[in-house]
């Protein structure tokens, strides 16, 4: 099991590590793009996880989801890896004007408990971090 953790962790972190998605923290940009009622375009490396993230955003009602990438204030790219009830997930927030990553969440996982809806569970866990972060920057 420990070997699987290392492999999944490195895979999740490298899905957006190319030059297009270089990470540069910018507090002012983050505060401006992540403010309440801004529009978010959600995508990811797994359509189920992106769908669950869209459900969470709609339920939370802090941001508005859009299916049109060109109308989004920011992009939330969900990176999800795993299988057989154990998933790892993180969200990468991208400025659509520059394609630069301006924030990324800590990596979360569902290894502590088994569930038949592991993808949904890991997104719920991810959104606890996202909501906590938003309350910190307001």
Which helices and strands, and how do they pair?
Elements: H1 2-14, H2 27-33, E1 39-44, H3 47-60, E2 64-65, E3 74-83, E4 86-95, E5 100-104, E6 108-109, H4 118-137
Parallel strand pairs: 1-2, 1-3
Antiparallel strand pairs: 3-4, 4-5, 4-6
The termini sit apart by: 39 Å
Morphology: globular
Number of helices: 4
Name the beta content range.
25-35%
Question: Mean pLDDT score, rounded?
Answer: 76
What is the helix fraction of residues, given as a range?
Answer: 25-40%
- Any idea what the radius of gyration is? 14 Å
Structural classification? alpha/beta
Stretches where pLDDT is under 50 for at least 5 consecutive residues are 1-20
DSSP E strands, number? 6
Task: Spell out the helices and strands N to C.
Answer: HHEHEEEEEH
Characterize the biggest β-sheet: 6 strands, mixed
Which labels suit this protein?
single chain, 4 helices, alpha/beta, 6-stranded mixed sheet, 25% strand, 138 residues, disordered N terminus, globular
């Amino acid at each position: 099991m420990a070997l699987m953790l290392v492999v999944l962790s490195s895979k999740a972190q490298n899905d957006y590590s190319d030059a297009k998605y270089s990470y540069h923290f910018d507090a002012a940009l983050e505060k401006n793009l992540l403010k309440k009622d801004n529009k978010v375009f959600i995508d990811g490396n797994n359509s189920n996880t992106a769908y669950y993230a869209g459900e969470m955003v709609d339920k939370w009602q802090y941001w508005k989801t859009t299916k049109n990438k060109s109308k989004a204030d920011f992009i939330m790219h969900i990176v999800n890896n795993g299988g057989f009830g154990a998933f790892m997930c993180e969200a990468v927030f991208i400025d659509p004007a520059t394609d630069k990553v301006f924030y990324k969440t800590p990596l979360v996982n569902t290894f502590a408990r088994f569930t038949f809806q592991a993808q949904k569970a890991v997104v719920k866990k991810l959104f606890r971090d996202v909501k906590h972060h938003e309350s910190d920057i307001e």
